């Protein structure tokens, strides 16, 4: 909430600082008119400013006939329903005038007010639940879940799952996950634009016979262009603050074919391999573009020391107009046994960082029930504290006919 002077009042619901003129909390939508406020004593016999003048109650007369009762509808401005016409007595013209236009979003709290572009009810001020707060999707061979988490006010992650046909008719299953950079402008738009652009690119290149690893490399470049374009849009200029960067996000994706497992990434979102046979070795398939990873790679710290540092999660690679130099990473593998690929943001792997920890968190039946596995992993992050948005996709791998090895 922007402020032009020091404010001492705070929201009784979320303790967000308030301005004297605020009717609703800008952070949580709390109706401030319902909170108790100190008022100056009114002169004796007068009604408080803005209060309704109720008629004086009449005393019973000598015949013991009850005095007439005054109803709220007898007083101007106190009709039930916030001024909406009574459907039992209103004319068709009145009802039509009071009916919201097609496509108008009504408040989930009062069911009367319209929702403004910022997501608050114009009638009661309540913040509306966002569609992206919790999302689930399942296809035949892949599933994904995304959740706002317990500490953030919106979900800045995005995902796409799909299946494309290769030239021989066999499927290539796709899962793409992006994590919006919170310190940047419009991080939620950045992650959404990146996943959509990359998915469209893959559905153009894979059916043409482009090798999945090359196709994913090209898709990351296309996603970067889509995020870069956001920096030129008027919406970015309106929301831009001096301390913020251009829209930005991380990227991680996986393509699974009959015999090949491909991953590609930029940033610190990750992909893990978890075999069905838990006596076999699980593996992390990606390397973070982060301060901690650089320290470990340079031999300046061991992994425990680097990730304990407060700078550990500072990313050194991302998609966005102000990225230093875009270097998409890709790799392909040929697993020799069935298992699942877990593609996720740091909202999950913060609570299951090593491959062994992730393997313990993945349900044993993940290959046959990928949506259930994604739900369990999301719950694992929320149970751990849910400090960040959580997004995870689970792709079963059926197991190749050839021996293991990296392509």
Secondary structure layout:
Elements: H1 92-98, E1 134-139, E2 142-147, E3 157-165, E4 171-179, H2 187-205, H3 212-230, H4 234-239, E5 248-249, E6 251-256, E7 261-266, E8 270-275, E9 283-284, H5 291-297, H6 303-308, E10 319-320, E11 329-334, E12 339-344, H7 346-349, H8 355-361, H9 370-383, E13 390-397, E14 405-406
Antiparallel strand pairs: 1-2, 2-13, 3-4, 4-6, 5-10, 6-7, 7-11, 8-9, 8-12, 11-14, 12-13
Helix pairs in contact: 2-3
Describe the structure.
By secondary structure, the protein is of the alpha+beta class. The protein has helices spanning 92-98, 187-205, 212-230, 234-239, 291-297, 303-308, 346-349, 355-361, 370-383, and strands spanning 134-139, 142-147, 157-165, 171-179, 248-249, 251-256, 261-266, 270-275, 283-284, 319-320, 329-334, 339-344, 390-397, 405-406. It has a six-stranded antiparallel sheet with strand order 1-2-13-12-8-9. It has a six-stranded antiparallel sheet with strand order 3-4-6-7-11-14, covered by helices on one side. A hairpin with a 4-residue loop joins strand 6 (251-256) and strand 7 (261-266). The longest helix is centred in the middle third of the chain and has 19 residues, at 187-205. The model is unreliable at 1-7, 37-43, 69-83 and 399-407 (pLDDT under 50).
